[in-house]
Amino acid sequence: MPLTPRDLAGCEHRVALDFAHPALVGDFPESPGVQRRKEAATAHRAAVRNLLRGIHSDHPDDFVVIDSDQGASRRADQTLRACADGARMIWNATLPTDIDHGRRGHAELLIAHGDGYIPVIVVNHRVSQPAKPRSSDAVRQATFMTSPLWAWSPSPDPHRTSRPNRRDALRLAHLTAMLIELGLAAGPDAAELRGGAIGLDADCIVVHATGAMLDDYQEILRRRQEIAAQAIATEPRKIGECRSCPWWGRCHPELVERRDVSLVASGNPADVLIENGITTIDQLAHHRGPAPEGWPSNARFDDAVVNAIAWMTDTELVRRVDVPQVRRADVEVDVDMESFGEHGAYLWGTLLTDVTDPAREVEYRPFLTWSPLPTRDEARSFAEFWDWLMAERSAAHESGKTFAAYCYSQQAENRWLLGSADRFIGDPGIPTRAEVEKFIGSEEWVDIYEAVGKNFICPKGKGLKRVAPVAGFSWRDDDAGGEASMEWYSSAVGLADKPVDLTQRVRLLEYNEDDVRATKVLREWMTDGAATQVPHERDLLAFRDGGPPPTGSHA
């Protein structure tokens, strides 16, 4: 049973289920979010193909494209023929199924080098990032390698650093092993073989030392093949991948029935608990003493215990502190940004509250562009937003009032604040990067997500749509969410030849307005009512010792 690179990374239980019930896999409907990501990846690969074809337009025979609208066997035959003919670059290369070793795979690109070919994959995420300034010695010793797009010519790159992705690395090792079996590897020394990845920026090829990964890859392949053959038993465990897995409807009831500890602790903490014999929520909830051996130093073990007790008592939120605190101001502006993938930020929504002036309307004000992203009109809407925000800030200061702007998880907002300043530098009204950095580094830019984490333990997640309902807020649209908003935006601006749907523009504005209002309600509730409505962690720990159910729980 040949495995693809997708089978090598992620959940082992999914692999077992996929191969045990192959007929069911084809019947699972794809969610709109999965479909959108696939469409975006397809569009990105097409753009890279056209870019590379343009680079080689003076020598079209150097760039061979294998037609994707044909069967895998025929694509593999044409790929091998192109290799035999000495093609310099082969796009959409499909390698013959390796029956003996149980492998299937394809590379977006094969680049001729040495005695064979280098596999290059094209992915719809970033594979590198700007490097932080380093000393000249560090620059000279840089080991991060990139190659230009027009030829395979790896060299140290002191200006970038890697964004590691295990799935990408395993896929390249998989392709390298297949090329070795075909006698098409770029050199005789397997340890020296390389592969490459072209990411979202499509400005270089990031070089991977695939030869050095082959031993690790072979062990992973062997284990996954045994799992696929049902020779190694697996069982479900909750991980991040579960959110989009079609098998979740089957796995979740199993996890609940056995009260699996992964329901309240995920990732490395769950691994440590299970390795130490703490496999159920009940065992964790009644654990006393120090954290188990190997517990990550950056995670508070008491939080895991409290999460387990909260699951047992159906408690939605738990206080860490007696009196929750968050920075408040005379003039408060809630901010929420909407972006479309990596293409830009089309909407900056704001809600201004003047606490000192009850007569001033609490007004939602959006700054937006409906020109499909990417668009230069984004610069205009961002400049208008920034000018308005800074004007309100200055007006507050001049009136002797304090000022604060709030967001929920500043990572996203900061990325597009800084990114917009960089991309549109020199356009009218665009602030400098230094101006943006000064503002977001000040006490007047407040992340409510961080404040929630400091004041509360969140057993059901720390997202706004998990926490704000505890404060009494509800969204007008039951489907509101980041994934859904991508589909709404696509219809709102008529992407992929869709007709423009003006109702989706209204839907997006209502969703954005509800997000900023939720942030306001949550902030005010944290300082005005949470202390009397949310149980303290000591209440839950007392319940472990036989006390009454914590006040505010749903036990």
Tell me what you see in this structure:
The protein has 555 residues and is of the alpha+beta class. The chain folds into three domains: 224 residues, no CATH class; 78 residues; 203 residues, Ribonuclease H-like superfamily/Ribonuclease H (Nucleotidyltransferase, domain 5, 2-Layer Sandwich), CATH 3.30.420. The protein contains 20 helices and 17 strands. An eight-stranded mixed β-sheet has the order 1-2-3-4-9-10-6-7, with helices on both faces. Helix 11 crosses helix 20 and helix 13 packs antiparallel against helix 14. It is globular, with a radius of gyration of 27 Å. The protein starts with 11 loop residues before the first helix and ends in an 11-residue tail after the last helix.
What is this structure's SSE topology?
Layout: H1 12-20, H2 22-25, H3 32-55, E1 63-65, H4 72-84, E2 89-98, E3 103-113, E4 116-122, E5 128-130, H5 136-140, E6 145-147, E7 155-156, E8 160-162, H6 166-182, E9 195-198, E10 205-208, H7 214-228, H8 248-257, H9 267-275, H10 281-285, H11 301-313, E11 318-319, E12 331-339, E13 345-354, E14 363-368, H12 377-398, E15 403-407, H13 410-423, H14 433-440, E16 445-447, H15 448-455, E17 456-457, H16 464-467, H17 482-493, H18 502-528, H19 530-533, H20 537-544
Parallel strand pairs: 1-2, 4-9, 12-15, 15-16
Antiparallel strand pairs: 2-3, 3-4, 5-8, 6-7, 6-10, 9-10, 11-17, 12-13, 13-14
Helix pairs in contact: 11-20, 13-14, 17-18
